Structures are given as C-alpha cells and as structure tokens.
Amino acid sequence: MNETVKKQCPWKILLGDWNTMTLITVAVGAIVFGLLSVFGDFSVFGRFRFPTAMLIPVAVGGIYGTLPAFFIVFIGSLASNFLRVSGFWFDMTMSYAVLGLFIGMLPLYGAKISEGIFTVKHAAIFAVCCLIGQAVAFGVVFPILASVFRPDYFFGIYPVQAFINGLYTTTTLVISGILLLSLMAKLYRKKTKTV
Prior knowledge:
It is a single chain. The protein has a two-stranded antiparallel ribbon with strand order 1-2. By secondary structure, it is mostly helical. The longest helix has 37 residues, at 158-194. A hairpin with a 2-residue loop joins strand 1 and strand 2 (48-50). The protein contains nine helices and two strands. The radius of gyration is 17 Å and the shape is globular. It has helices at 3-7, 10-15, 20-40, 55-64, 66-84, 90-103, 120-149, 151-154, 158-194, and strands spanning 42-45, 48-50. It has a single domain (3-194), classed as Arp2/3 complex 21 kDa subunit ARPC3 (Orthogonal Bundle), CATH 1.10.1760.
C-alpha cells in the first residue's frame, strides 16, 4: 500500500481533499452526469442500456475520493429528474448516490489514480465495492425509501425491477470502470515519467 495512504486518517480519505478544484470538478461532473443520464445512455440489448453517466463518479472518485463521487451522483441525479420532467424520484436518486459513495472508495484501499497506482488487487476491490454498493443501494436503501415515498410502487414488481436493473448497471460499471481506471492510471504514469 502507498505510504501516503498509510499515514492518512481513513476519515480524511473518505471525505476527500476539498479545495476550489474539487468544487469545480463536482459542479461540472454533476452537470455532465445529469446530461449523460438523460441523453448519454445507449441500448445494449432489449431494455438494458449502458449507463455512461456512472463513469463520471468512477473517474472523479479515483482522483478526488468518496464524498465528491457521492455528490456528483446525488446532484447529477436531481438534475436528470428535472431534465426528464418525470418528477422527483428521491428513492432512486439516493440509491444511485449511495452506489456512487461505494464507487468513490478507491483512495481508501490504496488506488491513487493521479499517481498512476491501480493494480489488479485494486481492480478486484473496486469490483467488490461496486457489488456491495449495489446490494446496499438497491437491496436496502431503495426499498426503504420507496416504501416511504411510493408505497403503491413498493408493493408491486417495481423493487425487483429496480434491483435487476441496478445489478445490470453495476456489472457494466465494473467492466467499463476497471478499463477506465486502468487507462487513467497508465496516462498519469506516462505523464509522471515525462516530467
């Protein structure tokens, strides 16, 4: 594990390093996330679509940490609700934000993308974090919030569909996320060598 990570407090890593650049990144990332949520997905097969928006918290989480990734998904999901003019879906918004929290845990287990550090071990932990995040977000958070905000949906097939859709999203996220993080780490390593 990286010496820098060993010396830092886990809470500090979870909160991320907040400065002007972080705030700008979160604001821009949230806008891009919202736009991609509405206009950026493309059909893979049947009703399943590739969630391009979820790559934004992957990239930001790898560089800025957990909380910035959470806020990008939360604010971006709120923005996508307004862009779709489909109403306010707090249960789904919060569920995806919780998934974003787990996605952004990369610095906590030693993956430092901006320093070119992303190993096979980090990729495996990232995959596990995504799966746990999906289980917590759509197996716990979503059913609880849906039962409060939309009990008519909650007692139907909707929670099962949300879980299956979330599982599909997470599977594609794991594959594309690992590829993206590997590429980003490689580019940062090259940049460091040329400086």
